[in-house]
Write a structure and sequence with these properties.
- This protein has three domains: 67-118 and 126-187, Translation factors (Elongation Factor Tu (Ef-tu), domain 3), CATH 2.40.30; 200-327, Rossmann fold, CATH 3.40.50.80; 349-429, Ubiquitin-like (UB roll) (Roll).
- The chain is 23% helix and 27% strand.
- The protein has helices spanning 3-12, 16-44, 166-174, 209-222, 243-252, 283-289, 303-316, 369-375; strands at 53-55, 61-63, 71-80, 87-94, 108-116, 128-136, 146-151, 180-187, 200-205, 228-234, 256-262, 277-278, 296-301, 323-327, 349-353, 358-362, 393-398, 401-403, 415-417, 421-423, 427-429.
- Strand 3 and strand 4 (87-94) form a beta hairpin.
- 33% of the residues are buried.
- This is Oxidoreductase FAD/NAD(P)-binding domain-containing protein.
- Its cofactor is FAD.
- It comes from Sphaerotilus microaerophilus.
Length: 431
């Protein structure tokens, strides 16, 4: 007898309750299989982003944030990471108690902070103001908490009349355990490639070590056999953050090669124990200490490091696709062959601010449209001033805006970022 006919004959001999039970069992089996598949995917592929890709104005895929707007986080604890107590880690837990989504190691959080302003005169009250700032996540993804590590920024030694870092000093002096902060979801285009077959070279200058700690922790937890080379440049042992943690990781993971570089070792700093190299992280050091072959480079640090090392790596022959970097603040890195839209050359370009009722002439003197607007008394919301937080995102009514480097914030269609944008043609803005 044909198998299908035999099955029909057997089913035809069943009672109605028996047939109903068989159908219910089959449906239950399908449901269990579907739930099991979903759980397996979540448990075995933790590195995949939870946000779904969308399409940016340029047609490239971009990721939606894990949550929209601001979310309340409570400070669980604070920990200083260096002997000078200039770098403090803040551990954050969501007030709503929901599990945190995974992020891409290297990304940052955006904070909305109510900071004290400067008194207008003697005896006058200090009014608080809200500022927006971005800080790199400094640990691997954890569903229970996030960590950021923030370095106190003093007034420049050569210009003591300048104010110290507003937000960093606010964190160090005022943000305490149990305080609640407003935080946007992790974002940013600076993150490690998930391919374990390509060795990663992580280069952090000063507080630029923070995204490297996130990348390093994630790699060791999920790709323990991946070859990693960490170059950490700083002045001396007083500023050496995460020292004990890095030494322990290097001792327990043979695939991690640690290169600590002091530019000005202190009297108590010992070569070979506290640091491996004296000077700066440069291409010559990399030539001497890296094996031949392809590497993915990840560089984060202050402007002096970025503006010298990143172009030098490109001149050394590192393909642009293997060269990833993030500069502090508005510092830009210019590379030949990098695919970024160019702003207009210096010269008179008409810029219309529709809501303000002003039409002005851009003459190229200002570093950005945000600086241009502020110089002419036009108020625009702003935060990080480096293309990360999106606070200055403004509707572009006509014309084109160019950028010297790709903003970390994913700009919505028909909008532009004033803090890193310059007119590429006559433009009209909604501001």
């Amino acid at each position: 007898m044909h198998p299908a006919r035999g099955a029909l004959t057997w089913m035809g001999s069943m009672t109605a309750p028996e047939l109903l039970g068989l159908i219910s069992a089959a449906l239950l089996l399908q449901l269990v299989a579907g739930v099991g598949w979903t759980l397996w995917r979540r448990l075995t592929v933790p590195q995949e982003a939870t946000a779904q890709p969308a399409v940016s104005p340029t047609g490239a895929a971009r990721e939606l944030p894990a949550w929209s707007g601001w979310r309340a986080f409570r400070v669980l604890r604070r920990e200083y990471e260096d002997a000078a107590r200039s770098q403090c880690s803040f551990y954050l837990q969501p007030v709503d108690g929901a599990a945190l989504p995974a992020f891409k190691p290297g990304q940052f959080l955006t904070f909305s902070l109510d900071v004290a302003g400067t008194p207008a005169g003697p005896g006058q009250a200090v009014a608080a103001r809200t500022v927006t700032r971005c800080y790199s996540l400094s640990d691997r993804p954890d569903p229970a908490q996030y960590r950021v590590t923030i370095k106190r920024v003093p007034a420049p030694a050569e210009h003591p009349e300048f104010e110290p870092g507003l937000s960093s000093n606010h964190f160090h002096d005022r943000v305490q355990v149990d305080d609640v902060l407003r935080v946007k979801a992790p974002s940013g285009h600076f993150f490690i490639d998930a391919d374990p077959g390509v060795p990663a070279v992580l280069i952090g200058g000063g507080i630029g070590i923070t995204p490297m700690m996130s990348m390093l922790g994630w790699c060791i937890a999920t790709q323990p056999q991946r070859r990693l080379y960490l170059y950490y440049g700083l002045r001396n042992g007083q500023e050496h953050a995460f020292k004990a943690q890095l030494e322990a990781l290097a001792a327990s993971h043979p695939a991690l090669h640690l290169h600590i570089v002091y530019s000005r070792p202190g009297a108590a700093d010992q070569a070979g124990r506290d640091y491996q190299h004296q000077g700066h992280v440069d291409v010559e050091l990399l030539r001497r200490t890296l094996p031949h072959g392809r590497h993915q480079f990840y560089v984060c640090g202050p402007p002096a490091l970025m503006q010298t090392l990143v172009p030098a790596l490109a001149q050394w022959g590192v393909p642009l696709g293997d060269l990833h970097y993030e500069a502090f603040g508005p510092a830009s890195v210019k590379l030949q062959g990098a695919a970024v839209p160019e702003p207009a050359a210096a010269g008179a370009v008409e810029v219309k601010f529709q809501r303000s009722g002003r039409t002005l002439s851009w003459d190229g003197r200002d570093a950005s449209l945000l600086d241009f607007a502020e110089r002419h008394g036009i108020e625009v919301d702003s935060g990080c001033r480096s293309g990360g937080c999106g606070s200055c995102e403004t509707r572009l009514l006509s014309g084109q805006v160019g950028y010297e480097h790709r903003p970390d914030h994913d700009v919505a269609a028909g909008h532009c970022l004033l803090c890193v944008g310059r007119p590429a043609s006559p433009i009209a803005l909604e501001a």
